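Known limitations

Files may contain more than one protein. Parsers should not assume a single record per file. Below, a two-record file is shown to illustrate correct handling: read the sequence, read the token line, then continue until end of file.
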Amino acid sequence: MEIAATPQAVSEREASEARGGHGRRLTRALEALEVFPALAESRDRLLRVVGEERPSTGDMVGTVETDPALAIAVLRVANRPSSPRAGNVASIRHAVDVLGADAVESLASRTDVFDFFERRQPWHSAPERFRLHAIAVQRAADRIAREIDHPDRDELLVAALLHDVGKLVLV
């Protein structure tokens, strides 16, 4: 014998599912951001830099700072919960220092990439548009920071590069 649910019970169940649905959608969106693709050329350039006999920290930093996906990945790993510096690494330079060339190379080799002419799910053309805008904002912020001799230029460059990351979550 099946017992019919009351209208109130159905309404409460639907409301509960709707609340959980938004949470699951946000979780999926944040997980997708973790695999946001880097421009293939940026990733390949980083692999060349870290593959040198004595990789330059400055060259690694400069290369990572040209691609929001690489920046997100390096900062995420440098700030992972198991790290003693969890949540305290706010610049690419600091992240590269914390990780070292071998970890940056390993991370870069696992980074998902896109080609300029490639349009894939779930991102379509978002990675390139996002990257170009982020780099333009970063360059503008860098110029202003140099003009006013800003004391935390490295952190400002990360903030400028990633200032629209919430838009990616919405996509």
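...continuing to the second record:
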Amino acid sequence: MRTLYVVTHPEATHHVGGLVGGWFDSVLTPAGELAAGRIARALRSKIPATAEVQLFSSDLRRTVQTAGKIAEEFGVSPVLDSRLREKSYGEADGRPQQWLDERFIPPPATGDRLNHDEGVAGAETKADFAKRIYEATETILAGSAEHQIVVTHGFAQQFIVTAWIKMPIESLGFVNFRAPSGSVTTLREDDFFHNRQVAALGDMSHHVTLDQ
């Protein structure tokens, strides 16, 4: 049985600063670093010590830091992949969230939502964003390990989920599988039917159980 654990990085400086994340290269806050350690220990408790583990991560610092905590627990080196980055908001990246909010054009209720222009120069369309996440997921799933860990971002993780269940990109216009920062989504494929399951979406229980 293959199990894929999709980790969204915990609290980063752009969160507390009210800034747009995207490709802005923020770092974990002290609280985020503690949360990353909890995530790493929770994953270690779920995966047998003898199991082969592969670790993949977005190459932005906040995800690399999170992956570093996991790497320490498992004794592996993360494979960094820029395709696992968050959606780019173009010239809004790193600016105050209010700056983006004042310029953002929401997608229409009907019609072509995937190629919608959000009104911000350089921002990725949903179609372009999904395509690179799908390509990265395909690379990850070409690996042989039964346990794979992917460290990414909140918006990006939903397209790993849809790629996992083989949802066509053209069907993603209305999809929203939200998961909070610092969460773990667990995806499983059985060896007999090869069905792909979303076993847990955005699980945050590790933040409670490991502090008790």
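Parsers that stop after the first record will miss the second one. For reference, the second record is described as follows. The chain has one domain: 2-209.
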